[in-house]
Structure formats: C-alpha cells, structure tokens
Amino acid sequence: MKNKGIKNLLIDLGGVLINLDRQRCMENFKKLGFTDVEERLNIQQLNGIFMQQEKGLITSAEFRNGMREMIGKAVSDKQIDEAWNSFLIDIPTYKLDLLLKLREKYVVYLLSNTNEIHWKWACENAFPYRTFKAEDYFEKAYLSYEMHLVKPEPEIFKAVIEDAGIEPQETFFIDDSEMNCKAARELGISTYTPKAGEDWSHLFKNK
C-alpha cells in the first residue's frame, strides 16, 4: 500500500476474492440446452436478463423463468442454480485469513456486482471458514442487486461513500476490472487491479 492515510478498503468479490470459471458455467448451461449461452453471457459486459438480475431489477424466480424461456424446455430451478453457481469456485483460505487480519487495521467493505443466487451460494459455500461467516469479514457488504446500481456507474461509489461515511482520499479499492477502478479514481479513490488468481496480499506487506 503506497498511499499513506488509507483507512478504508473496498474489496470486490468475483476475481478478487472468489475464483471464477466461466467456461465451466458455459458448459453446464449448454448441457441444459442453452446453446447460445456464450453470446448471451459476456462477463465483462453483462446485458439483458443477466444485467437485470445483477441490478436487482428482477427476482431470482423471474431470472429462472427467463432462463427457461431461453433454453426452450422445462428445466428445474435447481438445475439452473447449479449451472449458474458453477461459475463460482472458491475463496482460498489465505484470502479469508488476510481479510480477518486487514480488519485489525482498516475498515473493510465488500463492493460487488453480484446477484442473489450467487451471493447465497457464496455465503453458504465460500465464506464459511473455521467459525467465521460472510458477515465476519466486512464492516458491510454492498451488493449491486440490493442497491439497484452496478459498477462502473459513479452512483454506486457515491452511495457507498455516503452510506459508510468515508472519505474517498482515505479509501483504497481493489477490483479486477480496470473500468471499475477508473470510475473509482475519478472520485478520488485509490485503486489496484489484480490479475486473475493473483495473491494481492503483497499490497499490505510491512504495512
């Protein structure tokens, strides 16, 4: 951490904490008969039903019904959820240890573009560690589907700053999208963009 005076950390979920496997997700949807899933599910630029879900503009039930329409045959909620959640792999335990350690020095927030189905899976499968649960790693989790806003919209950062009562100049944001980081920097927030699977704990060595 080069920046002095940092008190708050904003940390992304997908690609920063949790490992992702888009290809596995695509393959599992194809097995259900969703043949053009690759064209429809662009992770870098979600649109249509995927963006509506991420923004919380539709419910999980409406998302599943929309998926059934695109697949064109009867598939169960469980099958859809399993295929969709196969996008998520795990959070390495060293990152969970790091979050707990960072909480001793910083106020740590989660800021994620995510949806209810993925968040529920993460809370049940990725965050539980020793005696800890999702809520133990963060002062507060800011989730796009609850806020009806998504990164890189400036409004989502402004909403977090206001709700948390934090100063942009005292805040450091870690996100795997350069576009998201650029939006944060324009508001005065320091940023870092890790590579996929990167151990970014070096940012906090000897700090």
Automatic annotation (TrEMBL):
Stretch forming the signal peptide:
none
On whether Hydrolase is a keyword of this UniProt record, the answer is: yes
Q: Which UniProt keywords apply?
A: Hydrolase
Task: Please name the Pfam families in this protein's record.
Answer: Hydrolase
Q: What is its EC number?
A: 3.1.3.-
User: What is the protein name for this chain?
Assistant: HAD family phosphatase
What Gene Ontology molecular-function terms does this entry list? Answer: hydrolase activity
Q: Which CDD domains match?
A: HAD_sEH-N_like
Give the highest taxon in the source lineage: Bacteria
